[in-house]
Specification:
262 residues, alpha/beta, D-Maltodextrin-Binding Protein, domain 2, five-stranded mixed beta sheet, four-stranded mixed beta sheet, 39% helix
Length: 262
Amino acid sequence: MSEKDLDAARQTFRVAFVPGVTPDKWFRLWRERVSGAELIAVPLEDAAGQDTVLSEGRADMLLGRLPLDDEGLHVIPLYSESPVVVAAKGHTVEAATTVDVTELAGEHLIQHPDDVPEWRDVAHEVLEGTRVEGERLTPRQAMEVASSGAGIVIVPLSVARQYERKDLIRRPVTGVAETRIGLCWPEAAESELIEQFIGVVRGRSPRSTRAPGSAEAEQRAAKQRAAQKKDAARQSAERARERKNAVRASRRAAGGRRRGRR
């Protein structure tokens, strides 16, 4: 077989990832373990594009930011990320150690308000109807605008680090939910390449083998664990209510006995 034929026969495996994710180590390990296939990195400029990258066939797997539209997808949550507020150097938040989202209610958010619903729900410019919505910006573009002093950005810490600039400062922000990074792929997709990449991300050794369909089994197990945790929480709440009702009944009975003795 000629070199041209070999290139044509080589499989390609495309992994998309949102800003803030640094998959270089995983990509390197996958390339060391897998032969006969070429891994192609598909960096996304904004998490807004993550919902269609798999359905449109632009990638085989996605390292995306949760929550996302997971209909028809397998999703393995990986790790959580804390939010930070980013502003131009010299901004008032620079003097703070931590900033609560309510303290940012009077600021202009450069992103779309729906990107940070906790800010949207307290923001003066949203509640008063004075906000003028502009073009949706990528995280890189939003950071550039923030550096001019035109407003603030609230993003996961990893995104702030990726687009770090000398004219920007960042501080942890409370009152805004953490986000999670998850490994996603279509439910209908099943291949050795997918299994291999799951193994790399999950930290399995090169000698570890997985039977076909194990990714689906892992997904089912994750859902089962979540259901069990939810059921345990429900049972705990029911027991707490029963104890509370028992205490109330005991107090009522004790009060009745005291009145009877009088």
